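User: tokens in, sequence out, please.
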């Protein structure tokens, strides 16, 4: 009414357009059984591995007894289609295992304000450039600048967030698949087949499912060429969003009067 309509579009994740091969519970159970582990719907028994399989994704989380976590993580890495496995070592350290045989630690400082990448064998994230600074604790913002366009974008913060900020019940193990595979529930898989089958998937750590877009008709937003999803709405608050919030607060006050 009197002002031009402004439209902003964004996607909260990317998508890998390749018909994926399923990693089923049968595949998982077979590999786990060979190491004395088994899938279950609850913890309580030694060797139980509880999967959370929902939708059709290129990732999944698992819960185990603490005494079984490391063994289960190394075992899951043997499942065909699993690219990376992460597991909690301490409250501020996660282990990174790659299907290539490479491994590393992620150290977290100040509740995710700073991170250290600690390669143990090779370079599972492909982050090393010869710059010794990349082996030192660095801020979240520095790692974003260094790795936002990498094959595994912004992995240190995203792994931390997945373990400690995105779930009420923190998992012991998280896995990311190779691009041409998916992990999910049987119900979702069958449901998708009734509508022509899956044409791709998302949810993993690799670039095609991590990179997305934001576009707008507004001239008020100063979006940089690369931006983390967690910062999109902060940009939109400056200045337009803050103005909108202030106006909403004024209207609420007037309504109250």
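Assistant: Sequence out:
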């Amino acid at each position: 009414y009197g002002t031009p309509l402004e439209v902003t579009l964004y996607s909260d994740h990317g998508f890998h357009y390749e018909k994926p091969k399923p990693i089923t519970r049968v595949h998982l159970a077979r590999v786990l059984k060979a190491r004395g582990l088994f899938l279950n719907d609850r913890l309580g028994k030694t060797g139980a591995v509880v999967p959370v399989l929902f939708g059709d994704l290129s990732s999944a989380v698992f819960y185990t007894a603490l005494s079984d976590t490391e063994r289960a993580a190394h075992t899951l890495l043997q499942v065909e289609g699993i690219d990376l496995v992460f597991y909690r070592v301490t409250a501020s350290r996660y282990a990174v295992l790659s299907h290539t045989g490479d491994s590393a630690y992620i150290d977290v400082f100040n509740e995710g304000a700073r991170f250290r990448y600690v390669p143990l064998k090779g370079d599972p994230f492909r982050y090393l450039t010869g710059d010794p600074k990349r082996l030192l604790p660095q801020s979240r913002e520095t790692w974003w600048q260094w790795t936002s366009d990498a094959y595994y974008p912004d992995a240190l913060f995203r792994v931390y967030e997945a373990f400690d900020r995105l779930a009420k019940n923190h998992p012991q193990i998280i896995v990311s698949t190779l691009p041409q595979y998916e992990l999910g529930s049987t119900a979702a898989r069958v449901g998708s087949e009734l509508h022509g089958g899956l044409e791709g998937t998302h949810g993993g750590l690799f670039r095609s499912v991590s990179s997305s877009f934001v576009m707008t008709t507004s001239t008020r937003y100063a979006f940089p060429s690369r931006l983390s999803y967690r910062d999109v709405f902060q940009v939109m608050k400056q200045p337009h969003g803050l103005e909108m919030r202030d106006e909403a607060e004024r209207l609420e006050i007037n309504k109250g009067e």
